[in-house]
Hints:
Strand order of the largest sheet: 1-12-3-8-9-10
Shape: globular
Low-confidence stretches: none
Order of helices and strands: EEEEEEEEEHEEE
Number of strands: 12
Structural class: mainly beta
Strand content: over 45%
Helix content: under 10%
Distance between the termini: 20 Å
Mean pLDDT: 88
Amino acid sequence: VVSKNYYDLSRVDTTNTAVEYAVKSKLDSNSNLAISLWFSPQFDSLNNEYILFGDLAALGGFKIFMSANKFRINVDGNDYEFNHNIVLQKGMWYGLILNINNKFLQTSLSLYKLDQNNNSGTSAGVRPQDNSNDLIEEYTEVKDITSQLVWDGGSNYHLRGNKTYMTNIRVFTNVIEFEQ
């Protein structure tokens, strides 16, 4: 069980803001950033791209785009693609961690899914929290970047309609280490 509550962004038009956060979309050259979130795809088309998380800047700013086989991070007009080439299953929950490490000039994206056998809670007398609750690593890639990723989106972070369910969205000022 990821969460009993989630945002149903599949019912919101992709051009509309569903949630506005109190956190400004901004990163300077001396700072790092990590974003973690859980999503469940609700799309059938393999060709569409949706904004998973980001700001409202028309040009520049920061956005995480998602399609069926890749994630695209757009920072101030520059794209960084993470081609995972796995089939995102409709209704399955996936955990995403994006790190932007300006100190070491790296960005990374990791994608996890829940082990359904240990998290279903369907066995009599067995609660999901009593099982291992292991995550299955579906994809991880670390990219070296040539310069710090910086932006000022001029707005707060937002969620838009995007054909997913989403929950547990977090923005951190430190990167999330693989051991965590």
